[in-house]
Amino acid sequence: MPTERHPAGRRLKRPGPMIRRKTQFSGGLAWEAPWPAHLPALRWLTAPAPPGDVGVEPADVPGLIEVLQRGGVGADRRECPDLAGQLRSAVVRRPDTLICNLVDDDPRLRLNAVLWRHHALGIVAALRLLAGVLGTRCICLAAAADAPAGFVKMLQRLAAEAGARVVGFAAHYPQGHAALLVLTVLGRVYPLGQLPTEAGAVVVDAAAALAIDRLVRRGRPMSHVPVAVHDHVTGKSHYAMAPVGLKIVELLGHLDIPAGQRAIGAGALLEQVAVAPEDAVGPGALTFHAAGLAPPAPPAPPAACIRCGWCVAACPTRLQPAGLLEAAQLEDPELADRHGLGGCIECGLCSYVCPAHLPLLEAIRRLGVGG
C-alpha cells in the first residue's frame, strides 16, 4: 500500500486512492451521532435580495476585497476567521494554500455538509476564483472521512475537476477550528489572535464560499446567511437561510422554537457564548444551541488541582491550562505567555475533562480580555 510522509516526518499508510486521510491532534471529543440519511435543504426565511451591479469578477486581491465590501460579504468565526483580514494580509504575504473547511465537529449541526450537498458547484466555483486571485498553488477540501459514500463521491469528483485535493480525517471536536485545520493539513501553527495567512494559508468555510459565489457569479449581495439551530428539548436540528440582522427571537419563531422557553448559545457546544433574544444574525457564528430553561444541576465546587495532567492531554494545542489558571489568579501575563496563552483556541476541553472542576476556560478568557 502506498504511503505518504506526515509533516513531522512519520510515514503513514494511505487508506486508499480516493480520499486522502491526514493525522490530527490526539484526543478531542467524538460525539456519538450517525450521519443522517438525508441532508435537508436550507429554508429561506425571507426572499433573497435581488441581483445588483456588484458582481464583477476581480482580477487581483484588492479588487476582490472591494467587490466583497460592496456586496456586504464577510465572515468572522472559528471555522473562517476574519475573511476580510485574511484577504488584506494576503496582499502582503501571498498564501500557498487555500483550505475549504467542510468539517462539522458537532454532528448534530452539519451546516457545512448541508451547504456542500446542495450548493457544491457554487462552492467550488468560489474556490477556483479565490485560488486564481490569490495565486495559491493548492486547494484543499477538508472533510470528515466517515462521510457517506455518495457525499464522498461528489466531493472527489468536483475536487478532481477543480484541481483540488481532499483531506479527510475523523472530525472530532474541536477539529473544525481553522487553527487546527491548518495544523492538520499543513503541519503549520499560527498564534491565537493572528490569521491563517501567518501560516501561508487562507481558510474559508462553505458559507463564506457560497456567499462569494452568489455575489460574483450572480450579483447577489450577502443579504442572508445559512444558520443551523439544534433544539435540545425536541432533539431536532433546523437549517435555514436567515436574513442578516434578523433577531434571534425572530429566528426561533420562524423555526417554531419557543424563545421564551429556551436558553440560546452561539457557536460550538463547549465554547458557545450566550446570546440574547434581541441579538442579531450576522457574519459571526452560524450554529446555535437552544437548551431548555429547567434549572441545571448546580456545578460541582472546584477543588484543588490534583496534577493529573488531563487538561494537558485533552488540549489540542498542548498548552498548560492549569498553569494558565495560576497566571490568571496571579494576574501575571508573562507567566501566561510561558504556559502558551497565545496558542489557546478556547475550545473548553480542559474544563470539560478536569476532575477538580477548575474554571480553566473562564480563567483563560479573563487573561485574553486583560491582554
3D structure, described in words:
This protein has 371 residues and is α/β, with parallel strands linked by helices. It contains twelve helices and 13 strands. It folds into three domains: 3-218, Rossmann fold (3-Layer(aba) Sandwich); 224-292, Phosphatidylinositol 3-kinase Catalytic Subunit, Chain A, domain 1 (Ubiquitin-like (UB roll), Roll), CATH 3.10.20; 310-370, no CATH class. The protein has helices at residues 61-70, 83-92, 111-134, 149-162, 178-186, 206-218, 248-254, 310-314, 321-330, 333-338, 349-353, 360-370, and strands at 3-5, 11-13, 20-21, 43-44, 97-101, 138-144, 165-169, 201-205, 224-231, 236-243, 262-266, 273-274, 287-292. A six-stranded mixed beta sheet has the order 4-10-9-13-11-12, with helices on one face. Strands 3-7-6-5-8 form a five-stranded parallel beta sheet, sandwiched between helices. The chain has a two-stranded antiparallel ribbon with strand order 1-2. α1 (61-70) runs antiparallel to α2 (83-92), α3 (111-134) crosses α6 and α9 (321-330) packs across α12 (360-370). The protein is globular, with a radius of gyration of 21 Å. Mean pLDDT is 85; it is low at 1-26.
CATH architecture of the largest domain: 3-Layer(aba) Sandwich
Amino- and carboxy-terminal Cα gap: 50 Å
Helix content: 25-40%
Hey, roughly how much beta strand do the residues contain? 15-25%
Would you give the CATH topology of the largest domain? Rossmann fold
Radius of gyration over all CA atoms, rounded: 21 Å
The level 1 CATH classification of the largest domain is Alpha Beta
Output the strand order for the largest sheet: 4-10-9-13-11-12
Mean pLDDT metric: 85
Q: Largest sheet, described in full?
A: 6 strands, mixed
* Helix count, DSSP H or I runs of 4 or more residues: 12
**SS-derived structural category:** alpha/beta
Into how many domains do the coordinates divide?
A: 3
Task: Catalogue the unreliable spans.
Answer: 1-26
Helix-strand pattern: EEEEHHEHEHEHEHEEHEEEHHHHH
Question: What is the total tally of β strands?
Answer: 13
Q: Which outline best applies? A: globular
